[in-house]
Amino acid sequence: MKILVLNCGSSSIKYQLLDMKNEAFLLAKGLVERIGISDGEISHKNHNGTIYKATDDIPNHTIGINLVLEILVDTEHGVLNDVNEIKAVGHRVVHGGEEFTKSILINDEVMNQIKECSDLAPLHNPANIMGIEAMKSIIPNVPQVAVFDTSFHTTMPNYAYLYGVPYQYYNKYKVRRYGFHGTSHKYVVNEASKFINRDIKDLKIVSCHLGNGASITAVKNGKSIDTSMGMTPVEGLLMGTRCGDIGLGAVLYIMEKEGFSYKEANNMVNKRCGLLGVSGISPDMRDLQNAAKEGHERAKIALDMFAYRVEKYIGAYTFAMGGLDMIVFTGGIGENATIIRHKICEHMSFIGLDFDKEKNKQIQGKAAEINKPNSKIKCIVMPTNEELVIARDTKEIVK
């Protein structure tokens, strides 16, 4: 079964085509960018390593997906003889609210419910919906499946997901913690458990998805019991441009002093804060590490703040679960930034982690154990693969 996985943003489409006949085989992947903007771009790579890039006007997602399908059947760069070889399409949908606790086959009723969740994710769900509707218009008879970032976290107890606001706002507007990166957290905790030959149902795991967007999840016996992102992705860790946890009074004070509107304040906490705001130079961890080596003081502070907040969440979730068996690092920073992993783990010997500093230096972008053999707590680097999770769920639901 060949499955197309789509991750649609407001002006982009990430895609992968996987053959799920046995276990997943990646046939092709690519990215369509600058949709609705001049000089749209498509970059494509097939399993033979053939790379194709082109520039074209891409006014909307329907035309963008048409370009994807055209390149997939192209005689030189493609991997299909006919688009009808695609037997199902899996979509990443960011927010499923309280309605969706697992992935689901998309029909009209499901589409209406996804649209209702758009108020909770106005930057993401509308783009996901555009991808679903575009695919339906092009290949109407192919089954489509929605896989939600939030669904893995629907196992959180109410005392973990509720906020200390008047309960009427939860009843009226569903104001609560939802959490994100669920597809990634689900994948890496399961793969890491297999990696150390343990049953996930017997483990207490802290999963650290560290990238430009970052979140930490407490996974007890295979279920998410708490996570750092909240009603929106701005809460939790310090991120590339998001502030993470901040006193509401500080935001209100800045709004008053600067005369900010709601939109201006929202733009600040999402796009001008985090590593960029603290360092003043970049949201990219690689840039900050290079700057810190050259003595840039604010870059050093940003790195220390990032690592410290991760440590705090690991400590809090260890206590919440009544112990800890494994820490998992994933995401662009978690998989590759050896200095950050070192900063996070070097102080954890008191809870039973015997961190292997030398092995950590050697590990980038591959699955590995970076603790010493006698460590009571395992520390695992595990590359994430959200597209594979989407493809697996899509295959099971369509079957």
Q: Determine Rg (CA atoms, Å).
A: 21 Å
Summed up, the helix count is 15
Count of domain modules: 2
| CATH T-level fold name of the largest domain | Nucleotidyltransferase, domain 5
What's the level 1 CATH class of the largest domain? Alpha Beta
Average residue pLDDT? 95
Helix content: 25-40%
- Provide the CATH architecture of the largest domain: 2-Layer Sandwich
Low-confidence stretches: none
The helix-and-strand class reads: alpha/beta
Name the CATH superfamily assignment of the largest domain: ATPase, nucleotide binding domain
Counting DSSP E segments of at least 2 residues, the number of strands comes to 14
Helix and strand run: EEEEEHEEHHEHHHEEEHHHHHEHHHEEH
Q: Which outline best applies?
A: globular
The major pleated sheet works out as: 8 strands, mixed
What order do the strands of the largest sheet run in, or round the barrel if closed?
5-4-3-2-1-6-8-7
- Kindly estimate the percentage of residues that lie in beta strands according to DSSP: 15-25%
Q: What is the terminal-to-terminal distance? A: 10 Å
Written description of the protein model:
With 399 residues, this protein is α/β, with parallel strands linked by helices. It has 2 domains: 2-148, 2-Layer Sandwich (Nucleotidyltransferase, domain 5), CATH 3.30.420; 198-381, ATPase, nucleotide binding domain (Nucleotidyltransferase, domain 5). Helices cover 39% and strands 20% of the residues. It has helices at residues 61-72, 108-116, 125-138, 158-161, 167-173, 182-195, 248-258, 262-272, 274-279, 285-293, 297-321, 331-336, 338-345, 357-362, 386-398, and strands at residues 2-8, 13-19, 25-33, 40-46, 51-56, 86-93, 104-105, 144-148, 204-210, 214-220, 223-227, 326-330, 368-369, 378-381. The strands form 2 sheets. The protein has an 8-stranded mixed β-sheet, with helices on both faces. Helix 1 crosses helix 3 (125-138). The mean pLDDT is 95.
